[in-house]
């Protein structure tokens, strides 16, 4: 394990404050980097950054592409400054600065992106046109051609899933696709423009962060959405029937004494035999693109890279299924051959259904293990998520996107668990009733003082917010991924407090 001792904050880009009703890669993101710098933080983690849709609950884990960026994050003010937009009409889009109104935001941002594309077509400089051409040529065969055609066809077919398209488009008949590229050329060009803007703004943001000592921590979901460009264009590496529908889907069964109950996620499963036959080319390309954007990545559901739970596609009960093997050693050997020492570039989300084989796999490739304070059984001194058990092979969290906040976790504890927590952190709850008001700071300080190489807090925990600021509740589809922070909350007082904690912990 070779990660440097450091700390940072977890905040998805959508949650940033800003005038376009959702976080963007321009000034809102740079101001958050400034806050991290003032707080002496060295890392910023976020959820996956692919394009989301209202139809799929706006989940960054059900994106339309594992390669493309989310156009909702494109900073409209930057496009105006470039002269591609006459003006940005933000009236009403940010009516609730505490929540992302995804339907309204999607309409607002896309309308302005289409106006900016028209402005680019007429007013772009020669240098800007050369940059656009270079972007297209660099990415066309890798992912851009498939993604932009997928988006154009999806719009042309009224947004239905690709498995419901006419057979010639569903099954990628070469003549039909060539005709579609000609017929939908304008829409394809627009989608290319959106990705060009995203890529340019992302590169600028990453440079800005690096100049201020902040690394970007990304997220690689193990599975991809069935209705995505990835599955449509790479059917051979997924377990699908002749019409492109999954024969089995992803999820997990119940596990004794674990936090997460059985879940049926519904994504198609990989055909690992086919992946191995191709040298895991699809995965290598996926990670290569992510490593190009981020300095470190979290590997989601690491358990599924040793064995995966397969639920029959027509079975609603996630407990009905079987564990199937993955050629994990061959897979990780291939990744090491391509990328070198993985321990400096990734860590494992190894929570749920753990086995000795999973732990051995993680250790063999030097990947740090993930630990979460919301999972701690405070009355169990040997609980694996206790901070005193974290080692330098640990990435520790005060909370994460799939858990309650630190304050929300504390408020949900039983009286017995709460008393054990008080005893663990050395607080006499009877003599110090203020712990209920400062428990978020207790969580941060406990994580920061640990031996974990990297510790991360949701921004909500630095601000002391409760369950009202929870970002996602697994297994539900309503009102997730919408929480936003207000700019006024990113105060010097909070940055100074976190900087003091960080220096005291030697991070």
Topology of helices and strands:
Elements: E1 6-10, H1 27-38, E2 43-45, H2 76-81, H3 102-123, H4 126-156, H5 167-170, H6 174-183, H7 185-211, E3 215-220, H8 229-233, E4 248-252, E5 263-268, H9 272-277, H10 281-293, E6 296-299, E7 307-312, E8 322-325, H11 328-339, E9 346-348, H12 356-364, E10 368-372, E11 394-397, H13 406-412, H14 415-424, H15 435-449, E12 454-458, H16 459-463, H17 492-504
Parallel strand pairs: 1-2, 1-12, 2-3, 3-6, 6-9, 9-10, 10-11, 11-12
Antiparallel strand pairs: 4-5, 4-7, 7-8
Helix pairs in contact: 4-7, 13-15
Task: Please provide a written account of the structure.
It is a single chain. The longest helix has 31 residues, at 126-156. Helix 12 links the parallel strand 9 (346-348) and strand 10 (368-372). Strands 1-2-3-6-9-10-11-12 form an eight-stranded parallel β-barrel. Strands 5-4-7-8 form a four-stranded antiparallel β-sheet, with no helix packed on it. It has 17 helices and twelve strands. It is of the alpha/beta class. The chain has helices at 27-38, 76-81, 102-123, 126-156, 167-170, 174-183, 185-211, 229-233, 272-277, 281-293, 328-339, 356-364, 406-412, 415-424, 435-449, 459-463, 492-504; strands at residues 6-10, 43-45, 215-220, 248-252, 263-268, 296-299, 307-312, 322-325, 346-348, 368-372, 394-397, 454-458.
Distinctive features:
507 residues; alpha/beta; four-stranded antiparallel β-sheet; 17 helices; globular
Distance between the termini: 17 Å
User: What spatial form do the alpha-carbon principal axes imply?
Assistant: globular
| Rg, alpha carbons | 23 Å
The string of secondary-structure elements, in order, is: EHEHHHHHHEHEEHHEEEHEHEEHHHEHH
What does the average pLDDT come to?
95
Give the helix proportion (percent range): 40-55%
How would you write the strand order of the largest sheet? 1-2-3-6-9-10-11-12
- Given the structure, what is the number of helices? 17
Helix/strand-derived category reads alpha/beta
> Ranges with pLDDT <50 over ≥5 residues?
none
What's the main sheet like?
8 strands, parallel, barrel
Strand content: 5-15%
Say how many strands there are. Answer: 12
